[in-house]
Amino acid sequence: MTVDLRARAAAHDALLLRRLELVVPLVLDRAGLDAWVLVAREYAEDPVVATMLPATWLATARRRTVLVFVRRADGSGVDRFAVARYPVGEAFPHVWDPAAEPDQWTCLARILAERDPRTIGVDRSATFPLADGLTASEHDAFLTALPDRMRRRVVSAEQAAVGWLETRLPEEADALAAACARAHGYLARALSAEVVTPGVTTTSDVEWWLRQTVHDDGLGSWFHPACSVQRADDAPSGPVPAGGETVIRPGDLVHVDFGIVDAGLCTDQQQHAYVLRPGETQAPAGLQAGIAAANRLQDLLMARFSVGMTGNDLLSATLGAARTEGIDGLVYSHPIGVHGHAAGPTIGLWDNQGRVDGQGEHPLHPATAYSVELQARVAVPEWGGRGVAFMLEEDAFFDGRECRFLDGRQTRLHLIG
Questions:
Q1: CB atoms within 10 A of CB 48
Q2: Axis crossing angle, helix 203-216 with helix 170-190, rounded to the nearest 10
Q3: Which of 63, 99, 174, 384 is the most exposed place for a label (fewest CB within 10 A)?
Q4: What one-character-per-residue DSSP string does 341-387 give?
Q5: Each residue's pLDDT tens digit, 356-366
Q6: In 51-65, which positions are buried (b, 16+ CB within 10 angstroms) versus exposed (e)?
Q7: Chain segment 338-374, per-residue pLDDT in tens
């Protein structure tokens, strides 16, 4: 697949401008900030700054790059500009002349004093790593440059940073849906006879086929794919760990966890295939029932999405509904977007099905995307009644009213024959 880099760069910059115009005022309101100052040095980029740079900067700050947003005193909008050695594209007017004012911090402090914002947000957060991008030395230098009266106005911009990263415009939701469709195509091929020859192909072969094929098509990977198997004759301890050289055999339930990066957006999906034994044309009914149980758990989770609900509340409500229906399930879903494990509310962890401090208390907002990641454990009669984990993951979009899959979901096992 040939990628037109110039066209992609132009699309990136046009989308960035729309996001700056539409999303920044929204998240400043949400965070109660009058100003937002983002500071990054080359190779120590604030994750938020990296998403605000022009395409030709390749997400890398040059020397020290300072991006500033300030509300206008008359309430008519938000001004943005860059205090930087080099111009930061048309999105951020360049306001620093080093020849006239050699010290960058002095220039920044002067401009802020002239605007006199009541609250100044910086990217410091003990809860969200993606909102904690201001390094200690830059934080100290910024505070030192400010007059005392303004130093006391500096607060965490956590809510603005998370809001900027998690909010998706309609065209971004469409692009993420297209990326999900491409990723589904790779999964369907990987979980088929095109890639898997029973008795020959290993789990590692599947992983590297996915990595190589995605790379050859000009797309990216944000994590190495994981392929594992469960078998009727295994001890009931769970799937064979991914990353090994386990040979895939007839009768195996094969699981893949896989994601791509397409035009700067990440996908994250998990699906299953069954390897037919000689004479079989379908998977055992008990395995198909396991997929149905995991589908039902997806339904229970997504039906409970509501604006303002925290990740912890959503987890608790979903697990309660699952218990009522007799589903033995785990929920460990997360936001997705420009990062794979993105900023926003954590909805359970695989090793913590209770309260998740910090990130679990973040509320749900409209125009956000999630990897609906979970598992249902089901006793399979054809496998001697042993418990089998059915681990599904699909990407979804929450528009504030409903949560829906971006490109459908797996409802039947892939069959490898």
A1: 25
A2: 140
A3: 99
A4: S-SS--B-BTTB-S--TTGGGPBP-SSEEEEEEEEEEEEEGGGTTEE
A5: 999 999 999 99
A6: bbbbbebeeebeebb
A7: 999 999 999 999 999 999 999 999 999 999 999 999 9
